[in-house]
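Hello Y.,

Per our agreement to keep a running log of every chain we model this quarter, I'm adding this entry. I've kept the format consistent with earlier entries: sequence first, then predicted structure.
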Amino acid sequence: MKISTLEYFVALAEYQSINKAAQSLYIAQPSLSKALSRMEEEIGVPLFLREAKGIRLTEAGEKILPEARQVLKYYQGWKDLANTDSLEEIEIYTQSVFAHFFLPNILLDFKKAYPGVKVTLNPVLKPGEYISRETGKPVLCLVVCNSTLREQFTEKQGSAPLRLMDGEYQCILNPSSPLAGCESVTVKDLRDLYFTMAHFKGTLKDDSFLYPLFRELFSTIPGSHTMEAESLANVVSLIARNPEVFTISYFPIVCLAEGMQDKLSHIPLQGWDLRQASYLFFSQSACRQHPALKELIHLIRSGMAELQNRRL
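Predicted structure for the entry above:
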């Protein structure tokens, strides 16, 4: 028996009219009647009662109908498997430190396996604003956040995130800086240095857990000692060449900067609890639907686990 025969049977049961069912299926009425007769002949029992006003299911037809619908549902699911690789684009929103120093190598490995899938990497101040349940064009949000924001983002996503690794926002300095040997530093200790970071715009209005820290930094360090850079990569390069420059960034990710492992020092900020985990938010439905998305999530998770193990 062909799948099309089951589709004809279900349509006939729903419309209770050979003429209307034939129109909905875009086939000729005689062809539909012949297919129905062949099905009844194959099964060995009548499925419909022919009446003046149309047709209606027999007792046997009533029993078969839900099973036929289930078979068609299975069949559609099998067909959908062939479409799971039809994913065209994935969007990633994350903080600059991940976009510049962690994700590029991950995305290179992914592109080798899935050259047809476009990945758009967006470094932003607030990745959580872009959380989406979209499945056709799925979104990944890699974000460092505290428990309050994590709960808000989880509600927005509709599912729990993947916890990736534990890290800490620290003061990033040149190893030759006069503060480089300290176990910790205060914001006041930094006031004679030059504070630089990428994209000041929006920082003072940021509603993240870092807002109080940035507010104190900008109120303590004079404007003559603050500098804005085009990117975090430029910030790190500037620090590596100048002992009087510092920034605040997420350790250990920032130390992945190419060729900078021995040119950066990281020191905790005294009086601030900046130890927070990084999380990956994504649509569970999209992950189940697209093997490529599942593989990208796996690569990100494995990369973070490898980095975490190197620290232990």
